[in-house]
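About this split. The held-out portion is used to measure sequence recovery: a designer receives only the C-alpha cells and must propose an amino acid at every position. Recovery is the fraction of positions where the proposal matches the reference. Here is one held-out target exactly as it appears in the evaluation file.
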C-alpha cells in the first residue's frame, strides 16, 4: 500500500525537533532547540497559525502531563524546565534540572521522568523523577556505568516501568518504580550499537520472563 502525505502544518518559522500530541489529539506541541528555544503549539483541527512560546535555549525534550494540563519543555542549554499551562499557553514555572536534560516522559500517578546527558562536556547521567503538581524531586537515580559525554539516552515509559537506552553503553535498562529499590535497573538488552528512540507495542508477551 502506497503511503501519502495527508496534510502539512507550519511550525511558526521554527526548526522543529521533537513533537508530542495533546491528550485529546487536537494539538501538536513542537520544540525548537535553537539559541532562542521555543515551543510551537500547532492546531490540528483549525486553520490558524501556530502559537510560538519562548521557553529557553536549546529547547528539546518535552512531555505532556498525564492529565493533559501542562507541557514540560527541557531547555538543555540551561539547567531549566519550562512548565507551560495547556489552557493559557503561558510559562507558569521554571523548574531546575541536571545539565543537558534532553528527554522527558509523563508517568501515571502524576510523575514526570527526566533524563540528562550528552553535550560537549562529560556529565553524569541521571534519571530524575518529579512530582508534576509540587515540582518536587522524588528520585534522583545515577545511571549505572555513568555513560556520559557524547552518549545520551532514550526514554520510554509504560505504566510504572521506565525503559532507558544508553547510546554509549549500547544497552537498554529497565527501572521498575514500584520496586523497593528503583535505583537498581536490570539490563533488558546489551551490545546494541547506539540505541536511542523506542516505542511500545502490546503484541509481544512475557518479554520479562526468565
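Reference sequence for scoring:
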Amino acid at each position: 500500500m502506497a503511503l501519502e502525505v495527508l496534510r502539512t502544518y507550519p511550525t511558526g518559522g521554527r526548526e522543529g525537533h521533537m513533537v508530542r500530541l495533546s491528550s485529546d489529539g487536537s494539538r501538536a506541541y513542537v520544540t525548537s532547540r535553537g539559541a532562542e528555544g521555543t515551543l510551537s503549539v500547532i492546531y490540528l483541527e483549525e486553520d490558524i497559525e501556530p502559537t510560538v512560546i519562548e521557553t529557553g535555549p536549546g529547547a528539546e525534550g518535552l512531555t505532556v502531563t498525564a492529565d493533559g494540563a501542562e507541557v514540560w519543555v527541557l531547555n538543555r542549554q540551561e539547567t531549566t524546565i519550562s512548565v507551560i499551562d495547556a489552557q493559557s499557553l503561558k510559562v507558569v514555572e521554571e523548574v531546575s534540572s541536571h545539565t543537558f536534560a534532553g528527554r522527558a516522559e509523563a508517568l501515571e500517578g502524576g510523575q514526570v521522568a527526566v533524563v540528562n546527558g550528552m553535550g560537549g562536556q562529560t556529565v553524569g547521567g541521571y534519571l530524575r523523577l518529579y512530582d508534576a503538581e509540587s515540582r518536587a524531586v522524588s528520585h534522583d537515580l545515577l545511571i549505572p556505568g555513568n555513560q556520559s559525554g557524547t552518549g545520551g539516552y532514550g526514554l520510554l515509559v509504560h505504566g510504572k516501568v521506565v525503559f532507558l537506552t544508553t547510546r554509549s553503553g549500547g544497552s537498554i535498562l529497565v527501572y521498575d518504580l514500584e520496586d523497593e529499590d528503583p535505583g537498581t535497573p536490570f539490563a533488558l538488552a546489551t551490545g546494541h550499537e547506539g540505541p536511542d528512540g523506542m516505542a511500545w507495542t502490546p503484541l509481544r508477551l512475557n518479554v520479562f520472563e526468565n
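Annotator remark: The radius of gyration is 17 Å.
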